[in-house]
Amino acid sequence: MRKLTILKSLVDFIWIITCIPLIPILLFFAVYIFINDEAISLFINSGDGAMDFSSVWTKVFLILLFVLIYVVIYCVYLFRKTLRTFQQRKPFSTAVIDNFNTIGKLLVISGISFSLLVFSYKLVFKAKFEISLGVTPYLGIVCLGLFFLVLSEVFKIAKTAKEENELTV
Amino acid sequence: MPILINLDVMLAKRKMQSNELADLVGITAANLSILKTGKAKAIRFSTLEAICKALDCQPADILEFHEHP
């Protein structure tokens, strides 16, 4: 179980160093971009400087981005919770199956939303019609989400097999 | 499940206690209770053989098929 301890430590490290500070920071900026338009330049690189930061669409785009980041943070939280259940030696509990299912669905949704958001950002703000067909990080997120969904199904089958084995006299 | 377990009837016929049968068969009283209450999903041939030997009966005396229980 040393591998599980290492994984749990790494996820805890990511949670403490990245996720916890991000929650109030993003919340702060979600409000601050409506007060000071210049704050948007911290998140969006306009390049030629021709971008209109006072536009409502820019703010809506950023808020959607923040929401998606919150969704990913929630996935990390659920994964941490699942690892804790593994440490308690309850790998076939309903909570694990439900958590994997939720993580999978959320990651698939956020992966697709991220790619749509970036596509629309390039189309609206940079007037560029760009479709990436190669390996993109968003595709990776969708694949990870599908992997978690498959894992949830596998755990469901394993739970049924375990119950049947326990009820064999 | 359409398979009914008539272990209670056989125990009453043989005037035997559940604990006694569990000891003879070599399974726990809890597992025998699972079998008696019909919660069991499967039964090993070895267990069935031991029960039949202990109760001096046939598998058909213990197991019954009912399409609509």
Can you describe this structure?
The complex is a heterodimer of chains A (169) and B (69). The model of chain A has no long low-confidence stretch (mean pLDDT 88). Chain A starts with a helix and ends with a helix. Chain A has one domain. In chain A, α2 runs antiparallel to α3. Chain A is mostly helical and 169 residues long. Chain A contains 4 helices and no strands. With 69 residues, chain B is mainly alpha-helical. Chain B has a single domain, classed as lambda repressor-like DNA-binding domains (434 Repressor (Amino-terminal Domain)), CATH 1.10.260. In chain B, 57% of the residues lie in helices and 9% in strands. Chain B has helices at 7-14, 18-25, 29-36, 45-55, 59-62; strands spanning 3-5, 63-65. In chain B, strands 1-2 form a two-stranded antiparallel ribbon. The radius of gyration of chain B is 11 Å and the shape is globular. The A-B interface holds A 163-164, 167-169 and B 27, 31-32, 34-35, 39-44, 47. Chain B: It comes from Subsaximicrobium wynnwilliamsii. Chain B: One of its GO terms (molecular function) is DNA binding.
The total beta strand count of chain B reads: 2
Oligomeric state of this protein: heterodimer
* Count of runs of 4 or more consecutive helical residues of chain B: 5
Helix content class of chain A: over 70%
Radius of gyration of chain B, rounded? Answer: 11 Å
What's this model, at a glance?
Chain A: This is DUF2975 domain-containing protein. The complex is a heterodimer of chains A (169) and B (69). Chain A is mostly helical.
Key words describing this protein structure:
heterodimer, A: 169 residues, mainly alpha, B: 69 residues, 434 Repressor (Amino-terminal Domain), 2 strands, 57% helix
Write the layout of secondary structure elements.
The complex is a heterodimer of chains A (169) and B (69).
Chain A lengths: L1 H34 L20 H32 L6 H32 L11 H30 L3
Helix pairs in contact in A: 1-2, 2-3, 3-4
Chain B lengths: L2 E3 L1 H8 L3 H8 L3 H8 L8 H11 L3 H4 E3 L4
Antiparallel strand pairs in B: 1-2
